[in-house]
Amino acid sequence: MSEKKFAPASLAAQAMGWIDPVTRAVVPPIHMASTYLRDEDNGYSSGRIYGRADNPTFDQAEATLTALEGGAKSLIFSSGMSAASACFLALSPGDHVVASKVMYWALRNWLMTFATHWGLKVDFVDSDKTDQVAAAVKPGLTKLVWIETPANPTWSVSDIAAIAEIAHKAGALLGVDSTVATPVLTRPIEHGADIVMHSATKYLNGHSDIIAGALTGARDDAHWAKLRTIRAQLGTILGQTEAWLLMRGMRTLFPRVAWACTSAQSLAEKLAEHPMVEQVLYPGLPSFAGHAVAAKQMKGGFGGMLSVRVKGGERAAIATAARVELWKRATSLGGVESLIEHRASIEGPGTPCPPDLLRLSVGVEESSDLFDDLDQALKRAHNA
Ligand code: PLP
C-alpha cells in the first residue's frame, strides 16, 4: 500500500495491505521456525539465518509501525523495557544522559541502579520545563536525552521540538517514550526525535494479552544497526504468537485511540467538577500546565490516560479504587478495558507520584458508564 496515497488509519487497518502470495490470505501465517535453510552456494538468499535475530511474523508489525511513525525502520522487542534499555545499552560507560524525572517508574529504577552501575551518568530533570533540559545537557558528553510525553502518571508534557533542538546542539540524540501518545496523536520524528519507543503492551496491541516493545528510528544508520545487534545478541525479540497478536491489535489502533480520547476528555471535564475530586491531571484540560504544548504536538486528541487526585488523601483514593465495579483495579494501560490504579502503592518509596492520585486508563466502554461507576465509588468512599 502506498504511504503517500493512503492515510495512516487505512495503512494500519489493512496492515499495509499485505496479502499472502501463495494462499491469497488477508491475514499472515505465524512462522514458527527458529532456523532457515542455507543455500547450496553457502549463502542465505532468504536474508534469514536464525530466529534470535528476527522472525517473518513481525515483519508486518515493524513495517506498519515505521509507516505510522514516519520513520526509517522499526524493531519489535520482547517488552517495552527491553526496547527502552537497548537505547541505553547502545551508549558507552562514561556517557552522560539527561532523562525525565517523571517517567515509567521501572525504567527510572533501572536507570538509577543498573545503568548507573554500568557506568552511565544520568541526570533527571523536569523535562516539561525545557530550560531544565537546556541547563542539564553537557555539550560533547551528553549522548542521549530521554523523555516520556505525556509522562506517567502525572501526564506532564515535554516539548519534543524544543528538546530535540537542545539535544542536537549538544551532540546528543533524542529518544521519546511515546507509549501514551501513540502514533495516532503524535509522530515524534516529525518534531525532531531520533528514536521513538513504545511499550507495545499498551495501545499498539490494545488487548492486554501480550508484553511487547518497539523502537522506530528516524534513520537507518550505524546507531540503528547497533540497536538491531543488541536485540539479536540479547535475544530480546518477540515470540511469534505475540508478534501475530501485536499486528492483529495494531489494525484497530486508530478507532480504539479515537474512542478513548473522546471518552477521557469527557471524563476529565466531568471529574474536574466533582465535589470529591481535588484535581484532574489531563493534557486536554485548558487549565492543565502542559495543555498548550500538548495542543501543538498532539493531533486529534489528548490521549486516553488521566489521573485524579482525590479529596481526603491516600486513604480516600485507595477506598475509591476498592469500590469500583466497571473499572478494573489493575496496573498497565492502553487496553480496551478501563483500568484504575493507586499508583503510589506500586511505585514505592521515592516516587514523585502524589499519594492521593488514582491513575485511569480509559478503554472503549460507554463513557457515561465509566463516569457513573467512578461517581458512586467516590461518594461511597467519602461516606465510608
Ligand atoms: N513505558 C511506559 C510509558 C509504560 O507505561 C511501560 C509499562 O507500563 C513501559 C514503558 C514498559 O513497558 P513493558 O511493560 O512492555 O516492558
What features would you describe in this structure?
- With 384 residues, this protein is of the alpha/beta class.
- The protein folds into two domains: 8-250, Type I PLP-dependent aspartate aminotransferase-like (Major domain) (Aspartate Aminotransferase, domain 2, 3-Layer(aba) Sandwich); 253-383, Aspartate Aminotransferase, domain 1 (Alpha-Beta Complex).
- Helices cover 38% and strands 15% of the residues.
- The strands form two sheets. The protein has a seven-stranded mixed β-sheet with strand order 1-7-6-5-4-2-3, with helices on both faces.
- Helix 10 (253-272) packs parallel to helix 14 and helix 12 packs across helix 14.
- Bound molecules: pyridoxal-5'-phosphate.
Low-confidence stretches: none
CATH superfamily of the largest domain: Type I PLP-dependent aspartate aminotransferase-like (Major domain)
- For the record, the CATH class of the largest domain is Alpha Beta
Radius of gyration: 21 Å
Count the beta strands: 12
Strand content: 15-25%
Structurally, the number of domains stands at 2
Q: Tell me the series of helices and strands, N- to C-terminal.
A: HHEHEHEHEHEHEEHHHEHEHEEHEH
| Number of DSSP helical runs | 14
Provide tags for this entry:
single chain, 384 residues, alpha/beta, Aspartate Aminotransferase, domain 2, Aspartate Aminotransferase, domain 1, seven-stranded mixed sheet, 38% helix
At a glance:
The protein has 384 residues and is α/β, with parallel strands linked by helices.
